[in-house]
Specification:
elongated; seven-stranded mixed beta sheet; about 40% helix
Length: about 280
C-alpha cells in the first residue's frame, strides 16, 4: 500500500496532537499478524488504524475486525480502503473512553484479540485497560515504543523493571516479537519501536489476599529507586498501624534483605512482603 500516495490524494497530514505516525513497512505488519495467531473465528479490535495498512491484513485473516479511530478525518479513508471486506466495522471513538464490555456484546460473540500500532502518548493507559479487561481480551499484539517494550518485558534488577512491568506481568506473559526502526513510519518518530505479544491470564501469577495493598507496597518501593527497600517503605508507605518497626518485622518474615533495592524484588517477593505487612 502506497501510504504517501494515499496521504496526498486525501490531503492527510499526521496530527502531532494524536501522536500519528503511519506505518509503511509491511515486514512488521506480517510479524504482528503471525504473532496474533489469527483464524476465521477470531474477533479483533484494532486501536488507531490510521490509514488501514494493518487493517486490511487483519480483515484477510480474522473473522471480524472492529477498527476504533479517534481522528474523524481518517474515517472516510479507512472505509474506502476496506470497502471490499464485509467483516470490518470502523467506528469513531476514543479508546480510553470505550466500554469494552459493550463493545464485546455488540460486535463479538466472545472474547477478542487486540492487534494495533498504539499511539505512543497513551500506550501505558491502553495496556492497563487491556489488563483490567482480561476477561474480554485473550491476546494482544501491539506496537509500542522500544523503551516501553523493554519495560513490559523487564526482569527484576534491571533499569527497565518497574511498576508497569509488575502490573502487566502479574496477569500476563509478555514477549518481544520484533524491533522496528524509525524509517518504517511516515512521518518517522523520534524513537524506535517494537512489537510485543501479551498473553493475558485470568488468575494472577501469584495469589494474594489484598491486591490493593500489594500495589501500594510496589509503588512505595519504586518511589525512591536509589534507596533500600526498608528506607523506601519507611518514607513512602502510609498505612494505618504500619510503623517502622512493623516494616522491619515484615521484611524479616518475608525473608527479604532490607538493604536490597526495590527494583531487585520479584513479583513473588512483593507478594510475600505485602502478606507479611497485612499480618
Amino acid at each position: 500500500m502506497d501510504i504517501k500516495r494515499i496521504m496526498r490524494e486525501h490531503g492527510i497530514k499526521a496530527d502531532k496532537r494524536l501522536g500519528q505516525h503511519f506505518l509503511m513497512d509491511e515486514a512488521p505488519i506480517a510479524a504482528m499478524i503471525q504473532a496474533a495467531e489469527l483464524n476465521d473465528d477470531d474477533g479483533v479490535l484494532e486501536i488507531g488504524p490510521g490509514l488501514g495498512v494493518l487493517t486490511v491484513k487483519l480483515c484477510e485473516r480474522a473473522g471480524k475486525v472492529v477498527a476504533v479511530e479517534k481522528d474523524r478525518d481518517l474515517i472516510p479513508v479507512l472505509k474506502k480502503i476496506t470497502r471490499d471486506f464485509k467483516n470490518i466495522c470502523v467506528i469513531k471513538e476514543d479508546v480510553l473512553k470505550l466500554d469494552l464490555e459493550l463493545l464485546k456484546d455488540r460486535y463479538f460473540d466472545s472474547s477478542f484479540k487486540v492487534v494495533a500500532n498504539l499511539p505512543y502518548y497513551i500506550t501505558s493507559p491502553i495496556i492497563m485497560k487491556m489488563v483490567q479487561n482480561r476477561h474480554l481480551v485473550e491476546l494482544a499484539v501491539v506496537m509500542v515504543q522500544k523503551e516501553v517494550a523493554r519495560r513490559l518485558n523487564a526482569l527484576p534488577g534491571g533499569k527497565d523493571y518497574g511498576i508497569l512491568s509488575i502490573a502487566v506481568q502479574l496477569y500476563a506473559d509478555v514477549d518481544i516479537v520484533c524491533e522496528v526502526g524509525k524509517d518504517a513510519f511516515m512521518p518517522p518518530p523520534k524513537v524506535d519501536s517494537a512489537v510485543v505479544r501479551i498473553r493475558l491470564k485470568q488468575r494472577p501469577q501469584v495469589m494474594m489476599e489484598d491486591e490493593a495493598l500489594f500495589f501500594k507496597v510496589v509503588e512505595a518501593a519504586f518511589g525512591e529507586r536509589r534507596k533500600t527497600v526498608r528506607n523506601a517503605l519507611k518514607g513512602r508507605l502510609v498505612l494505618p498501624g504500619i510503623s517502622p518497626d512493623k516494616i522491619d518485622g515484615a521484611l524479616e518474615r518475608a525473608g527479604i534483605d532490607p538493604t536490597r533495592r526495590g527494583e531487585t524484588l520479584s513479583i513473588q517477593e512483593f507478594a510475600r512482603l505485602a502478606s507479611a505487612l497485612r499480618q
